Structure formats: structure tokens, C-alpha cells
């Protein structure tokens, strides 16, 4: 049940990640902190730029859904929507 | 028994956030901006080109960083000009970010499973006491050149450098399995490595091979690469080497080898690394994993790469221009490499170079004298000894595997 611990300590995660690897700076926009916390827990955020801008809204939604369903990311529907909206608006096709 | 978790805890990793990365954090130094990156294809997605930098992992030469964590780093074109890729220049690919630094002294390999006649745990010294064999073989990511798919498909946007060729040394997997003995009903052999996911709910990277491939005489549990211990980033202290098959089966940091009598149904077999049935001209099949719709990717499709000159290079009209590269396939052997300077209307054979073995890169070379100034398109295509030839048109598939479109470089003739 380690995901509970991760959710409970979300603000710490980006700081830890940056201590270990060069920072990857996402565009400043609403939802960025949520992305850094959830997505950055398991992978560096360059995954997002790498797959932009050829993902349209539906495909970004599919990527977020894959992270939750296939990879077990503990993201509730409200946060998933925040993440999806941010990706579509800032890194979408 | 040493588990991945046990290894991490023994190493004192800060585990709560997949802190294995802290143990192996790359030393940063030789970074440069992407504008100076050699051989970064203009066909890669814009976001990939913006974020790709040369970055140096400990023990490695600068590689093209696609993602930091998990680390996905490909070899620049300049590292792929020889039949053997040096260890420091070899690409790095991980699916999951919890990567322990394995200690050779405490590393254990568990052998057994319900498809075996017993269970056994061995150490590195025990593995090295088994008869040693060597094979020169290409290790190529199934998604190599995914970034050049058009339309693009999600995933790591690899250029052509998610591959390398090394001389691997180790024990035959068959000999390792013989330590416990396979039951006659054994169907697949399953491999787990010490690396794993950050979250417990993320499927661990576990792969299987059909028994027939597992017991082939060239399939190894390798502990040396080009005469040295495996680099950490390439699977220290031991990895599976499955010559001819894509790198997804070459499990790194292997800690367990288990025989099973039913198809292994983990995520990375059942869901990932699958290709549509019937689209690719593959000989090797993984029948116990096939469905009506799709099948696990198996062998490497016949392919070639022009490594010199690079796309966009300037050459002189009326002067001999040396064209060279490598060709490889799933182990049938390269029969020919042909060059076209007229958009594929006519093809001329290049000269094949040294032959380090049927699973290896086969260097080739060709001399061409450009006649006219302007843009010159040069294409290369390889054929293998069972008559397979590189495709002219991309064979679309959702995960972006098996890109073996004949490559074209654009040269500026001055």
C-alpha cells in the first residue's frame, strides 16, 4: 500500500526528483504542481515533451488512463481531469 | 532469497519514492544543448528534439538522453560505425525507475518454478563455473526508430540508436536450467530482474521465452560484454542474451529464472510488446503466447543503417564519396546490401565487410560519385539469406515496433 504514503507526501516528490536528476521544466500553467507530484513520482517529466505535440486531446486522455489502469497510478478522477486538461492545453496537438 | 526489495533495503536506499535512483544517480557533466547533438533526426517529434541532450551516465560515454528516469539513452550515429559497439557507447533502456546497484558478492540467481524438477539458488561464482560460451549478437530495442514513425505513436521516441552489438559471454541458459531439470510439460521460461517499479501496483518487468528458444545453444545467461563485466546500465551482474530476438527478452540484472507449464500472463507479455498477427514476415513464433489478433514480438526484422555520411552532410560533385553502414537481422545472416540513388528505381550492391557472426552487425561500404550539384537522396536496403528484404513502406502497428523501412539520407552536393 505504498501509494498511500506517496499521496500523503506529494509535495516532497518533485524536490527529491530534482536532487537526483536535472530538472525538467514544464510550462507554468494551472495543474503543473499536480503533474509534477503524480507523474513525477514514477518518471521524469521529459516523457511529456517527448510525446508532444503529436498527441491530441483523446490520445492524451488515453495516456492518462493507461497510467492509471495499466500502471496503477493512484490518481482520482478529479486530479486525472486536471492532468489531462493541462497536457491537452500545453502539450497537445 | 534475495528479492529486488531485499537488494534495495540492503543497500539502504531511500525507498519511499523509488529511491533506487538515488544509488545510481548519474554524475552530470558533459551536457550540451540539443542544437549540437549529432545525428538527431529532423523526423523526430518536435518535443523529443527539444528535450534530447547529450548526457553522461556513470561509466558511459555521452549518449543521447531521451528520458532521465527511468533512463532511456540512445547511441549517437557515430558510435554505430563498427561491428562491435564498445560498452561505454552502448544504449541504455529501462521501463521502470527502481534500479538497484547490484552487489556481485551477494547477488543470487533463483532457478526453479512449477515447470522444473527442483529449486536452486546460485551465486555469480557458481554461474561462472558452468561451461562458458560466447556469441556476438545485436541487442536491439523492439521500438528502435519508433520516433521516426509517421504518424507518430506514443512511447519512447527512439531514433536509430536503441541498439548495439557486443560479444557476450556467459553460461548457456540450457545448462542453468539443467541444474534443476525441466519437466517435459514445461512451456515457457520466465525471467525477472532486480529492477522494478516505483509503485507496487505497477506491473514488474517480467518476461518469458518459449522453452525452445530458452534452450537454444546461443541463448545465454551472460556476465561479460566485450570482455568485461556487464556495465551496470546493461544489466550487471548477469542478463539474458537471446540472440536474434528483440531486446525486450534480454532481461537485465536477472535474479530469477523459472519454468512454467502454462503461458505466463504478466502485463509485459500479455499486454505489452505485441504486434498484429500476420503483418511482419517473421519465422520465429511464440505460439503459447499468440492470440487470434496479436502475438509477442519475437525476432529482429532485417534492417540496415547508413552511418556515414550523416543525413544532411555536404559532399563534392565528381568526387568519390564513401558510403558505409551496418546491416543485421534475426540471425539468418545478411545476404546483400543495396544502394539506390534514384528513389529506388535501380539498386546496386554494396560490399559486405567483416562477418562476426550471423547475429551481429555486418558492416558494408559503397563508393558513389555524385554527378550533379544539389540534393542527392541515397537509400540503403538489406536482404537476408532467407530472402527477406527491408520494407519500402512503414508497416504501421500501434506500439511502433519493427521499423525496418529502407533508410534514405539527403546529401547536399556542392
Give the SSE string of chain A: HHHHHH
* Uncertain regions spanning at least 5 consecutive residues of chain B: 1-33
Strand order of the largest sheet of chain B: 6-5-14-9-10
Overall pLDDT score of chain A: 84
Biggest contact: A-B, 37 and 40 residues
- What overall geometry of chain A do the principal axes of the alpha carbons give? globular
Give me the CATH superfamily of chain A.
Answer: Cytochrome c-like domain
CATH homologous superfamily placement of the largest domain in chain B: Oxidoreductase, molybdopterin-binding domain
Number of domains of chain B: 2
Tell me the major beta sheet of chain B: 5 strands, mixed
Instruction: Please give the CATH architecture of the largest domain in chain B.
Output: Alpha-Beta Complex
Structure overview:
The complex is a heterodimer of chains A (93) and B (414). Chain A contains six helices and no strands. In chain A, helix 2 (12-20) crosses helix 3 (32-42) and helix 5 runs antiparallel to helix 6. Chain A is 65% helix and 0% strand. Chain A has one domain (2-21, 28-91): Cytochrome c-like domain (Cytochrome Bc1 Complex, Chain D, domain 2). Chain B contains seven helices and 25 strands. Chain B has helices at 4-10, 20-23, 46-51, 124-129, 173-178, 211-214, 267-270, and strands spanning 53-55, 63-67, 72-74, 92-93, 109-112, 120-122, 132-140, 163-172, 188-193, 206-210, 220-225, 228-229, 239-241, 254-260, 274-276, 294-296, 303-308, 314-315, 321-328, 334-340, 348-349, 351-352, 362-368, 374-384, 407-413. In chain B, strand 11 (220-225) and strand 12 (228-229) form a beta hairpin. The longest helix of chain B has 7 residues, at 4-10. The radius of gyration of chain B is 21 Å and the shape is globular. The chains are: A mainly alpha (93), B mainly beta (414). The interface between A and B is large, with 37 and 40 residues.
Amino acid at each position: 500500500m505504498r501509494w498511500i504514503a506517496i499521496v500523503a507526501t506529494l509535495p516532497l516528490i518533485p524536490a527529491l526528483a530534482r536532487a537526483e536528476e536535472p530538472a525538467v521544466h514544464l510550462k507554468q500553467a494551472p495543474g503543473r504542481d499536480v503533474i509534477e507530484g503524480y507523474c513525477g513520482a514514477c518518471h521524469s517529466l521529459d516523457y511529456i515533451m517527448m510525446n508532444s505535440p503529436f498527441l491530441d486531446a483523446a490520445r492524451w486522455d488515453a495516456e492518462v488512463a493507461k497510467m492509471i489502469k495499466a500502471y496503477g497510478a493512484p490518481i482520482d478522477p478529479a486530479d486525472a481531469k486536471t492532468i489531462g486538461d493541462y497536457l491537452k492545453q500545453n502539450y497537445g496537438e | 532469497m534475495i528479492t529486488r526489495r531485499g537488494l534495495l533495503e540492503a543497500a539502504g536506499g531511500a525507498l519511499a519514492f523509488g529511491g533506487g535512483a538515488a544509488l545510481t544517480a548519474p554524475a552530470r557533466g558533459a551536457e550540451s544543448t540539443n542544437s549540437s547533438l549529432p545525428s538527431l533526426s529532423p523526423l523526430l517529434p518536435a518535443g523529443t528534439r527539444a528535450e534530447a541532450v547529450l548526457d553522461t551516465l556513470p561509466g558511459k560515454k555521452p549518449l543521447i538522453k531521451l528520458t532521465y528516469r527511468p533512463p532511456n539513452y540512445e547511441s549517437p550515429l557515430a558510435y554505430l560505425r563498427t561491428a562491435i559497439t564498445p560498452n561505454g557507447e552502448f544504449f541504455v533502456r529501462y521501463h521502470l525507475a527502481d534500479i538497484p546497484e547490484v552487489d556481485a558478492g551477494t547477488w543470487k540467481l533463483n532457478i526453479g518454478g512449477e515447470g522444473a524438477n527442483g529449486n536452486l539458488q546460485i551465486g555469480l561464482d557458481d554461474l561462472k563455473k558452468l561451461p562458458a560460451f560466447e556469441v556476438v549478437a545485436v541487442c536491439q530495442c523492439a521500438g528502435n526508430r519508433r520516433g521516426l514513425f509517421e504518424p507518430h505513436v506514443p512511447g519512447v521516441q527512439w531514433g536509430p540508436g536503441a541498439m548495439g552489438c557486443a560479444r557476450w559471454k556467459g553460461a548457456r541458459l540450457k545448462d542453468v536450467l539443467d541444474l534443476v531439470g525441466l519437466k517435459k510439460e514445461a512451456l515457457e521460461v520466465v525471467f525477472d530482474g532486480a529492477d522494478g517499479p516505483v509503485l507496487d501496483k505497477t506491473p514488474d518487468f517480467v518476461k518469458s521465452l518459449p522453452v525452445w528458444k530458452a534452450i537454444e545453444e546461443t541463448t545465454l545467461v551472460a556476465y561479460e560484454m566485450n570482455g568485461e563485466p556487464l556495465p551496470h546500465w546493461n544489466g550487471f551482474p548477469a542478463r539474458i542474451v537471446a540472440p536474434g530476438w528483440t531486446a525486450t527478452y534480454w532481461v537485465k540484472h536477472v535474479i530469477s529464472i523459472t519454468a512454467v507449464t502454462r503461458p505466463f500472463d504478466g502485463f509485459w507479455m500479455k499486454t505489452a510488446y505485441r504486434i498484429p498477427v500476420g503483418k511482419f514476415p517473421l519465422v520465429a513464433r511464440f505460439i503459447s503466447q499468440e492470440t487470434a489478433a496479436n502475438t509477442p514480438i519475437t525476432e529482429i526484422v532485417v534492417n540496415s543503417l547508413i552511418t556515414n555520411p550523416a543525413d544532411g552532410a555536404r559532399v563534392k560533385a565528381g568526387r568519390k564519396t564513401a558510403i558505409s553502414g551496418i546491416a543485421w537481422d534475426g540471425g539468418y545472416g545478411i545476404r546483400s546490401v543495396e544502394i539506390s540513388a534514384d528513389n529506388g528505381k535501380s539498386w546496386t550492391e554494396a560490399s559486405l565487410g567483416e562477418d562476426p557472426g550471423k547475429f551481429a552487425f555486418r558492416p558494408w561500404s559503397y563508393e558513389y560519385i555524385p554527378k550533379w550539384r544539389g540534393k542527392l537522396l541515397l537509400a540503403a536496403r538489406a536482404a537476408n539469406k532467407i530472402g527477406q528484404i527491408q520494407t519500402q513502406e512503414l508497416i504501421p502497428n500501434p506500439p511502433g515496433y519493427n521499423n525496418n523501412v529502407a533508410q534514405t539520407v539527403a546529401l547536399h552536393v556542392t
